[in-house]
Structures are given as structure tokens and as C-alpha cells.
Design the sequence.
């Protein structure tokens, strides 16, 4: 199997932003849970072009300073914005700060990478997308799973057409989870699956309904189910859950010709393609329409999935997009689509599962 | 582990019908897919008190005649009804005929066992329940899974209170299925899970919504999701699917103290109890209500599940209930509750997932 | 995938025995644990040409008589031998009786099918093989697994050469077992695996050693390990065990190009082919021989295995061989090879694992 | 469940060496594959008392120097020996250098930790053990698995007696492996399992035989099977393999009362205890000794295994033993027993599986 190379991700994508051409210089904003991972990967990808890090917490800053002796560390975000030697910033702060920080960075002429989800509301995401396009800057969201070898392989298989028409997608992402005080299980876990499905389909569902329950006495949902209707018979369903005694990461993509299962917890056979399905034949028998359905069980094929750190590929892709001006595969519009679904799911849950349009 | 004995199923249940005391004589109606299994099991349980079988199709009747030389076989249902030596009938015909056949049998003074689902509509089920009670006859529905050792063990664990409060039930029953021309996947597969949940909880949900998609061009749903709200934070979710490339039979019962998983495809560890969960503590910190949530991962325990044919236990239970007049654990009211949910789910699917009351 | 048809099993095999041409008439000897399965399958394959059954135990005979009303049942083996209308007998009696019964049947001019293992000693097996060849009669051993679709598929893959050279075969067949009073775990379980390996390789190992332990105080081994050396770097290893708390049926066939795993307990993916392995390159570097070894991890492919009862195919194959005179794929010589290994393993165990020649 | 604390490992063990009392100062010798892991863990356990590192390769030394700015790095082993401020050294160099380096360190008055296997020969190991005892210094071997929470739990269960008498141990450690140019698969993989079994049983087998095959054309075994006879009906069997297409880490400990399975690849249920087994009853029936064997299948229990880095515990244990003078649980004698088995296995393989005494 051929590992998709970085350039393949952007080929056939025309530049939409000003590319500096040379390796861009990057600053990382936020050194909490995820920021150090970004630092490590940008350090691996661009070395000393990782110029600066920023966090208000001196303890976090000091930890990074020890590990990366040459790296400039600051607690002052404005100093990063004012530094003309920095072309782009990667924002790994709490979701409610994504919009003000990303907006300020775009206004200061920087390209921007934002952790998922892009923003806390559709309105915020729309403003960022519009601003980035107007200013000719790259706006990318870190939908990390899109850069994992397994999901890329899944995309390759779906795009090849071998599954036939896709009939349904069923995704389960459950475990005994880290309860969040601020966001519910939908905003915490669903962005992973929604970003994967967005990568596969590249479009919004026509409508959706969602259903959830809060169990910690704080009104924050710890279990939720989302039903997305993409029209034409294609539905997608998501189960996200912080209360499951077992961990499951399992996605079925059911097609008319073949079906695919993505099990992220299977160390070896993460992707399996099942050559089984149904064939529907229509017949008119004695003036009565009949449907004859044949079943077919066939071989199972599990393509080799190379080992590759998704975050490394993600960082390299951002760097390349900033350098060339080409649009990222997880651009602001992809981030916006995911936020649209999250916001709509939230509305539906509060409306007891009523159907809404994202 | 002690295997639940037949009498335990009815202990503490007062007679509601006229019990004949002695072993009842039974006739089986319908010798298609399921009927021969009933014949085999009633033959094992009551021997020659299995008196007669009935099917209009002479080929089917002949096959049974060969295998059970002494058994009376007829194509005439009325002859069964008129035979005073027959105390009870077991009906294994297509669902749309359940109501007329069961009604006729009850009116003829027979006790009645009906295959699941009890009837094709709530109205029909209500009429049968009312009629059986008025006539003092046993009306039982063959919710076979309720008689499986694994489900009984699950019931025993839930009733023991060791799970704490039940927070959610999540059930998946999917496979590359046998498309039916007449019923959709909800009526085909969900009765199994709904009867299990009814056995565990013994009550109807307050409301439900359902979501499905038809793929064979015939308007008959081949995938469906049901969300049941039982109030008090307890939700149940069902995924039934005829298009899955893999077979999954998996139910999670999540509790505040422990959780349980029932995997019917695991030959050895069908039931696992996970001593893990969350503990919510409420604190007032600086006038601001905070929720502190502790995680606990603990031992896993899988009780031994004896091997026992559920249908054998079901047949024995019916026979015992007819003999003693005690109400079956899967009585007409249990059958009615399941039909209520099926019918409501159908309404919700047609209303695009709108919330309905069963 | 194409299901191997019966005739494929014998194509290119020249007749070695007198074939009657028409459907042979068969008698089944022994109605204990396995005999009724033979009756059921011969009945399905040849119907009324299954002529007679024989067992000295009247209870067993009566049970068969009830189930197969037209079948002649006798307690007298000699009556079967004397019946000229019977062309062939299938012997399903305790192993120590295989030799005298099969010998008598061959002498009486019958073709013979014998349950595995063929006999209790090499000497007995040699006599039967020689006698069958001299008399021109079919002698077949019921190595049932050889007729299972999974093992046939395994054979097809091995014969295709896609695995490259076979380097090792590792087989595990363990469970909490039925202790036998007369035979040890080697004679009970190993014939299954040895017959499979004999089918794949078609030859005896050059030498073997075996190692076992008896635990029930009766000197009968309940655990054993067999090491077979086929020469040329090909080794095979077998673990058979009656004391394992879990059931495992797992065979690895490791090749230079690809490897194959046969997991008989996997309902769906019984056979998996792994496109992974090593490549050895020899280089002379600075007058020093070096071995450069490359690793390759690749796709996994699991061919669809049709559902088919192995015993049905086995019965059909015996019938066909008797009719045509062609040699069975599990002929007396295959049975003899398996008995040679069993007997040698027994010697090695008693000699504390000393290396012996089968 | 209570996590075993460090002090529990040495309680009831009387000092055998001179303990310095205060935190010992440690140097790490060898910065190749494993050395950096030791550096990281000693750094975590004793901070600045990790005084120095040594490797002749300047590249490796430089990498560690960057990561641990304050740490003294040298290419000169003798400088470490001459440094009186260093109390103990941890040796992570190729196995053939273990003996000379450890011997020199002991002679220089240092306590010594050596990577597994302790030495390349029994003679070397015996000399080190004798020397350490004579000099009153701690000699410990890094049998890392002994310090894993799963193996400690296994030891706790075995010691509790709940398994009854142990009848057999069957261990499989196979994968597509890293071929070594110098050591075969026995010396590479078996030390892990042998050190676990030594921890459980604490004694040598009476005899053993081994069987292997070399496949890379270099005479170095890539597959091997070891049979150990501990007497009294207790046998242990090991399968180590570099050519397996799948990775398996699976150990069964079969007992008369219960059995245990340790599956190191199961993320959640690494240890399972099966309440199943056999009961042998002896009876004299008609002057004939009969053995009645009852089977019992029962519950399965999987104790929670805490997450804890084994190497961290190992480093802490070494430090504690040096400080207190108490003998390590993986002392030189444990290391010697493992080397005895490795050397004997090698002899047996070369003698075609002949039985040898370790």
C-alpha cells in the first residue's frame, strides 16, 4: 500500500490564500492539554521555524521551556501578534476563546490553525471563515482523525466507488469518559466522528435529530444519539457516551456493493471491507410489484494501515498550505460544517429530539 | 450457580385463570418456520399430551407426520377448536393472523400461546388481553429470549440492585438480514430487545422517537433506531439493522454503581458485570454549584450461564401456567406493551422521528 | 468462491478398487456417540440405499428404529456381513474394535469406512491397508475435518503456492475436555490436527518428539505437546489439552511469502491469509557473511467459507469412491500415516520426549 | 484493589548487603535501545541522584545530554567506576558485555542492576552472584515483567492458593519479530516468560527439552518450543516465535481448583480467573480401579489491573534495595536460574530435543 504523501492532500487544489513559498514560521498558543503535542510535532516538522509559544500559566510555560531550550516562550498573546517574523499561529485553548484569538490573529495578518471544534457557535465560525477569505489567509481546523492513515484509507476506498452507493453510516464512540464541566458529550466526542464523516461526504445533512440524557445532575448530557439524514436514503447515526463500561470506537459504512468497518481499537485490522450485501431486483408478478432480494456473503479484506502519527501529518499539512496558499482539506468551511451540526444537535436535544436543519 | 427452576418463574404469582391442575393437552397451529420448533419442545415437555397440529399446507403437515408418527395432524383449524380434549393452543402463524386465530381459540375456551409479536396492532392486542381476562384463560406471548438463561441472569442481577440506578440501556441487534416483504426491521428484530427490556423494567416508556430508512425500494425500513424515554433520566436506545456486514447482539445496561453487558454471541461470557462507574458529588464552592465526578474502574465478573434451550423453558412455563392458572411472566399485557412500542415506533418513523407516546 | 464439488475430490484419481457404478448400499455399524450422525448423513445422501444398522445395545437400536421407520436394525454384525445386498459398511465403534470389524468386512467383500483413528496400532492399520488393496475394496477413514469447507480452502491456498515455502505449522486444540478412560488426549484430539496436516502435506515427518503429563491419577495423559520435523526446515507443533479453561482451535501455517491462520471458532473469518513475512538477503560485507532480513506487514484477506456439513461431504465422498472404485482422499494410507504418528508420539512420551521415527 | 506498594516487595526480606540508608546515587551504562528508558525512569525516581551516563557512541551521548541538561555524560566506563560518589550502576549493554562490566563494577564496590538476561552463560552468572554476595553488594537483574501490575496480580492469585495445585503453565509469545544477528529467539523472547514463571514458582525445573528451527539461513533459531518438567505433574511449555503473522502474548496457568489466563494484549482484562476445572474421584468398582472425573464450568473473574509503568517500579525497587541492603525480588540468583534454563534449552535444541538438566 502506498502511504498518501503530503502533497497529494493538496494536489488539484488551487491556491486561495497568499503563500509565502518558504517555510512559514509558527507560534503555538495555549500549552494546556493539547498544546504540547502541537509543539512537539511542529518542532519535528519545521524545527527552528517553530518560533514561539504562549500561555498565561507560568508553570506550563516553564515546562515547555525546559524541554525546548531554544524556543521563545511568552505569556503575552499580543506580543505574538505583533511579531512580524511569525506567519501563522496554532490555537489550542479552550473552545470559547477560539473565536477571539483566531479573529485577532487573522486581523494581525497571520494564518491560523484552530483546535477542534473550530468555534463555540456557527456565527463565530462564519465570521472566521469570511474573515480568512477576505484577508487571503489560511484558516484550518485540526480535525486530527482526518490525518490518520486509517481514515485516509477509508476515504480512498469510499472514493474508489467499490462500496457502491452508501446506504448508512453507523458510528459508536463510547467509554467511561472524562466529564467536562463546560461542554457536553456531543461537543466533546462527536467532532471526531462528524469530521470523519464530513471528510468522507463533504456536505451537510439535510436535517438531523438528536436525543440525550444528563446524569451528573448538572444538566450536561453524558449520553447522546444523533440521527443525520443526508437525503437519497443515506442516513448517519452517532452514539457518543461517557458512561459506557467498555471502550468502543466502531464505524460501519454500509454500501450497496460492499461495506466497510473502521475499528480504531483493532491494532492490526483497523479497516475491513466486506464483500457482502444485498441485490434488489424488481419484478412484476401477476400485476403485483415484488421485490426480490438476494444476499451475498463474500470475502473480507483488511488493507494494511501504515503507522504514522496523525498530528505530524496534520502539522505538515498546515505548514504546506501556509507556504503554498492552497486550501487545507480541513479548512474553515469543514470546521464550520461540523459546528453547524453540533449546534443543531444541541437545539434538537433541548427540543426533545425534534428534527432540525443544520 | 443455581439454574432457575420452572416453578420459580411463577412463585408469588396468584392464579388469574382457571387451572386444570393436570397436564394440559396442547395443539400447535402453524407448521412453517417456527411451528416445528414448538412441536419438538412441547413433545419433549408433555409427550403425548401434545395432541394435534394444524397447517393448511399438506407438505408441511406431512413432514411433521413422518417425524411424530403418533401425532394427529389436520389442515382444519376449526377441528382443533371443536376438540374438547385440547386445553390450549400455540399459534405460530404469520402475525396478521394472530388476532383472529387467538380470538377464536379464546372464545372456544382454550388457553393461548402466541408467537411474538402478539398481534399486528395495539387494538388487536387489547382485545385479546381483555377477552382472556374475561374468560379466565391464560394468554401468553412467546418472548423466547425472556426464557434464555442469560436474560434470566441479567434480570436477577438487575433485581438484586447491585447496578444501582439504571441510567441507560443501549441495544444493538444487527446483521445481514432476511428481508421480509410484509414487516419492516422494527417489527422483525425489535420485539426481541423490547421484550427483554420489558422483562427487566416491566413498564412502558413515557415517550419515544424512532428513525429509519428503507433501502430495498419497497418502502419497508431495513434500518431503524429507537429512542425510549422512561423518565427519571433513564433512556433506552435500540439499533436494528438488516444491512450490517457483521452480526452484533450487544446490550449495555449502565447503572450508577455497576454496569452490565449482555453479548449474546459470546459463547462463554454472555454476561459481564463491570464494577466501574462514576460518583457525582455536589459541592458549593464560592457560591457556585460544582459537580465533582469521580471515576472508578474495577473488576469484571462474568457469571456462569448454564446451557438450556429457551424454547423448552418457555413451553414448560406455558404448560405450567395453564395447569395452575397462574399468569405467565410473558402474559398478554407484556405482549401488549411490546406491540404498543412497535406501533408507536412506526408512527414516529413515518413522522420523521417525531416524539410519540406509546 | 466456488464450493468444491464432490467430483473434484476424486478427479485425476484413477480407480484402484472395483467400482459397482451404481449407488452402493451401505450399513452402519455402531450406534453410540457418532453412529447416529453417520446414519443421518448417509440417509440424506443415499436415502433408501442406507440399508441397515447394527448395535448390540437394544436401547440405541430402538432409538434409531423410531427415527428411521423403514431402516433395518440388527444386533448381529455377522448378519450384515452375510447380506449380499450390502456393498459397504461404515464402522463407528470403539477404536480397539476397528481392526477386527473392518478386517471381517473386507474379507466379506465389503468396502469399509472407519471412524478416526483408523486403528489402535500401526500393525493393525497396515494389515487393513494391505487387505483392502489385495481385495480391491475401498478402505476410507473418516477424517471429518478434511471435508470441512475451511480445511479445503486451506488446502487450496497451500496448493496454490501463494504462501511460498511452508516454514512451520503450529496447532492448538485445547478445551476443558471429556476425559476418556481408555485413550489419552493424544489419541482423542490429535487425530483431527494430524489428519489436517496430512491432507496439506501428504507425507510423514522424518522424526518427532512428544511430551505429556497425566493429571487424573490414572496415568492417562491429559496434556500433550508434539513436535514433528518434516525436514528442510519445516516443523509442525501440536498442543492438545483437556484441562484448558478456554477453548482454542487455532492453526498457524507460516510461509516464506505469506502466512495463514485457521481459527475454527471464528464464525465468519475462519481462514485469514496474512501478506506479511520476512525476506532474507545474503550479503558479503567485508569478508563477513551477513544476513539482512526485511520485514513486511501487509493486507489481511479472509476468503468466504461456505456453510456445508463436513460429514455430509464425507459420506458422499465415500459413496462416490465405492461406486467408482477411485481412491478416497482420506484412504487407508492416510489413516495409517496418522496412526503411525500417534503411536510414535506415545512412544516418545513414555521415553520422556525422546526423538522417534514414525 | 490495592496496588502493591514498593515496600511490600521487600518486606520480610532481611538485608543481605550493605545498605547506605540514604538515596543511592546511580549511573547508567549503555544508551542504546534500552538505556534511555532507564535514564528516564531513574530520573523520575531519584532525580538528581541519577548522576552519570556512559556510552562510547558520542551521538547517543549527545542525545541524552540534550534531554537531560544537568546530567554528566561520559564515554569512559572507568571514570564511572572511579567516581566514589556513585553507589550503583545500571548496565544496559549487549548481553556479552554484561559479565565484564558487572564484574568490574562489583569489584569497584558498586551495587549493580543488569538488563535481562543477566549474562551470556551460567558460568558468568555464577561468578557475579558469588562476587556480589562476597562483597555484600546488591546484584539485581531487570526482569521488567515481574514489576508489571498484571504479573504481580498473577503472583498474588497463585500465592493465595485459590487455583489449587498448579498442573500446567502454557505460554505463547509470538509475533513478526526483530531478527537478531547474535542471539536466537530463545535468548531474545524466552527470558520474559521464564522470569515470570521463576517469579511464580521460585525454583528450577528438574529437566527440560527444547526444539527449534532456524529459517534465515544463519543457523539462528527463529522459532522454538521449550518443555519444562518441574516434577509432581507440573509442566510448563513455552512457544517463542519471530515468524508469526499475528502477535500473541498468552499464558495459561491451569490449576486443580481454578485456572488463570494472562493475556498481555487485552487492554482491559489482562488477567482472568476461571472457576472451572476437574474433580477426580477414585472408586473401586468390582475390583477394578475406576476414575470418575467431574467437570465444572463456573464464573470468570477479571480483577482490575492498575496502570503503572513496570520500569518505574523496577527502578524504585533497585534504589530501595541498594538503600536498605535487602535482596531484590529479581536478585542475581533469579537471573542465574533464568540463564540456566536458557543455556540448557540451547543445549537441548542442538541435541535435537534431548532432555537436559538445567
Sequence:
Amino acid at each position: 500500500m502506498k502511504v498518501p504523501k503530503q502533497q497529494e492532500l493538496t494536489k488539484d487544489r488551487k491556491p486561495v490564500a497568499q503563500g509565502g513559498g518558504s517555510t512559514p514560521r509558527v507560534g503555538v498558543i495555549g500549552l494546556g492539554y493539547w498544546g504540547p503535542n502541537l509543539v512537539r510535532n511542529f518542532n519535528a516538522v519545521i524545527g527552528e521555524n517553530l518560533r514561539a509559544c504562549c500561555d498565561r500559566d507560568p508553570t506550563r510555560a516553564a515546562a515547555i521551556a525546559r524541554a525546548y531550550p531554544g524556543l521563545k516562550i511568552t505569556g503575552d498573546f499580543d506580543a505574538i501578534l505583533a511579531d512580524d517574523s511569525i506567519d501563522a499561529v496554532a490555537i489550542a485553548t479552550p473552545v470559547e476563546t477560539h473565536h477571539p484569538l483566531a479573529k485577532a490573529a487573522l486581523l494581525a495578518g497571520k494564518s491560523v490553525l484552530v483546535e477542534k471544534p473550530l468555534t463555540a457557535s456557527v456565527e463565530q465560525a462564519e465570521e472566521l471563515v469570511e474573515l480568512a477569505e477576505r484577508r487571503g489567509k489560511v484558516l484550518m481546523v485540526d480535525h486530527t482523525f482526518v490525518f490518520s492513515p486509517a481514515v485516509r484509507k477509508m476515504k480512498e476506498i469510499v472514493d474508489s466507488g467499490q462500496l457502491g452507493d452508501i446506504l448508512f453510516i453507523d458510528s459508536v464512540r463510547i467509554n467511561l469518559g472524562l466529564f467536562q464541566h463546560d461542554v457536553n458529550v456531543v461537543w466533546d466526542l462527536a467532532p471526531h466522528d462528524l469530521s470523519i464523516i464530513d471528510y468522507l461526504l463533504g456536505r451537510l445533512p439535510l436535517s438531523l435529530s438528536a436525543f440525550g440524557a444528563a446524569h451528573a445532575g448538572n444538566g450536561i448530557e453524558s449520553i447522546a444519539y444523533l440521527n443525520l439524514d443526508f437525503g437519497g436514503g443515506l442516513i448517519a447515526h452517532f452514539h457518543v457516551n461517557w458512561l459506557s463500561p467498555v471502550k468502543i470506537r466502531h464505524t460501519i459504512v454500509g454500501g450497496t456493493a460492499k461495506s466497510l468497518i473502521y475499528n480504531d481499537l483493532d491494532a492490526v485490522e483497523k479497516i475491513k471491507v466486506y464483500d457482502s450485501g444485498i441485490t434488489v431486483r424488481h419484478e412484476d408478478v401477476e400485476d403485483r410489484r415484488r421485490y426480490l432480494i438476494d444476499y451475498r456473503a463474500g470475502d473480507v479484506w483488511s488493507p494494511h494501515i501504515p503507522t504514522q502519527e496523525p498530528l505530524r501529518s496534520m502539522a505538515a499539512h498546515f505548514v504546506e498550505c501556509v507556504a503554498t496558499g492552497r486550501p487545507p482539506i480541513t479548512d474553515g468551511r469543514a470546521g464550520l460544517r461540523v459546528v453547524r451540526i453540533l449546534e443543531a444537535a444541541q437545539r434538537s436535544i433541548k427540543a426533545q429530539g425534534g428534527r432540525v436543519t443544520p
Remarks:
- The domain at 6-145+311-332 of chain C is CATH 3.40.50.720 (Rossmann fold).
- The radius of gyration of chain C is 22 Å.
